[in-house]
Amino acid sequence: MAARASTFLALLVCLSTTALVRAEDPYLFFTWNVTYGTISPLGVPQQGILINNQFPGPNINSTTNNNIVINVFNNLDEPLLFSWNGIQHRKNSWQDGMPGTSCPILPGTNYTYHFQVKDQIGSYFYFPSTAFHKAAGGFGGLRVNSRLLIPVPFADPEDDYTVLIGDWYTTDHKVLRNVLDSGRSINRPDGVLINGKSGKGADKNEPLFSMKPGKTYRYRICNVGIKSTLNFRIQGHPMKLVEMDGSHVVQNTYESLDIHVGQCYSVLVTADQEPRDYYMIASSRFIKESTNATGFIRYEGSSAPASPVLPEAPTSLIWSLNQFRSFRWNLTASAARPNPQGSYHYGGINITRTIKIVNSASRVDGKLRYAINGVSHTNPETPLKLAEYFQVPEKVFKYNQIVDEPTTENDTKIIVSPNVLNATFRDFIEIIFENHEKSMQSYHLDGYSFFAVAIEAGKWTPEKRKNYNLLDAVSRHTIQVYPGTWAAIMLTFDNAGMWNLRSNLWEKYYLGQQMYFSVLSPARSLRDEYNIPDNFTMCGLVKDLPKPAPYTI
């Protein structure tokens, strides 16, 4: 009898353990070997950054709440980090992969990232955040599919394609960095790429994608470049916009889309034209001498060539601004959770703080620097997050060197220093971006999505709030700011951690147009933020310090 009871108890334990294992969200494991390799995307041989010998890097295909584990082997000759554009890393800025949160992966070593795509869906990408590596490659697509039980507001497509568009320099990334370090600008890019190809070289006769007549396909288009807004269009095929930056949107149809640096759009395209080849085009916007890349889509069973007449891109800024205003959040669609997106009524929340962000450029000691509110960020040897976690921030940086309402003096007088602003946990905040410069701007905020409620010409005043979209502005992570305009976003700072706000224009990012928000939970609880990972690399002042007491529930 005792033996039977013991066997029964063991079976219960086994079943309970199995249930726990099954209840855990699935894991996806990747090993990346990061190396240099010779690439010639614009016909000029140059040193590129390859992941597992691929340029662009491999796509990550995940589903909501998956755990992603990536073991990165750095076989470059420089320190390396990867960041995950648009992934929120809830409670886990340790995995954000920015110089302000992580020690770099040194040459000849490896580091394993482990993060969860918690409560997210949509189209994203990853990139190297160190040095000027992004100008050499190392980027790739990252998609988060909806769980099977969550309805998606469109029928399953025949196939799902990733399209990485971006401007490109033929100059070596180290040479570009040296130019910037000397205090000069790197000027205009040399061309544009679509999935690492320009459509002008030896690969111009190879189709990028294929479609079956009568079928509908999803194209996830991300601007992974470093300077240029790009207009994307497909010859003879309108595009139905269904998702951007992780949100389902009202499904309007567009002949072309302006995609700003750091943004990702998903469109549906139906193969309903005469079977033949059709060009897709990505061309630069808002610069004097536009460049473009082409690739073509082939209808299966057809060998008829594409028409050489390419659809023209729009030319005006107003066209682009009006397109932004046409984007609407799909209030009835579910995103990562069963409840509709529109069940979150952001327009009825009281604003507790307004922060104005003004970008500027000037010279410091004769060298070009870019700034936010008069402070040009520089990365200290000790990452900001580590200094804060080990409770020695005063030895590394000073909080709140910028003010919420910058003065005109901040436009011309710049100081070079780590730029960290405190934000109160769970405050609902309004951020105003004012672009006083003559070039395009694109801002990205790590760790969050925000509501892009307005873009207008001129300077912002409180009276402008009456023009905000407080009902169905798209929740997203990147916002463009046209020359001479302002943009307003709203969000709740409910994700504890150290989070980077940056210009996506990489020259400006590299020369200081970025900052960090420190969002601390006063409870110091695992409910709000995870402990430092056991495998986390230490560096700088904290390298030999004992770890602080871990957070508890």
Automatic annotation (TrEMBL):
Keywords: Signal
Matches recorded under Pfam families: Cu-oxidase, Cu-oxidase_2, Cu-oxidase_3
Signal peptide start-end: 1-23
Gene3D superfamilies membership: Cupredoxins - blue copper proteins (2.60.40.420)
Listed transmembrane segments: none
Keyword Amino-acid biosynthesis part of the UniProt annotation: no
InterPro entries per record: Cu-oxidase-like_N (IPR011707), Cu-oxidase_2nd (IPR001117), Cu-oxidase_C (IPR011706), Cu-oxidase_fam (IPR045087), Cupredoxin (IPR008972), CuRO_2_AO-like (IPR034271)
GO MF annotations in UniProt: copper ion binding; oxidoreductase activity
Domain Plastocyanin-like intervals: 33-147, 159-302, 382-522
Family in the record: Belongs to the multicopper oxidase family.
PANTHER family for this protein: MULTI-COPPER OXIDASE (PTHR11709), OS01G0816700 PROTEIN (PTHR11709:SF27)
Protein's UniProt name: L-ascorbate oxidase homolog
Species this protein is from: Papaver nudicaule
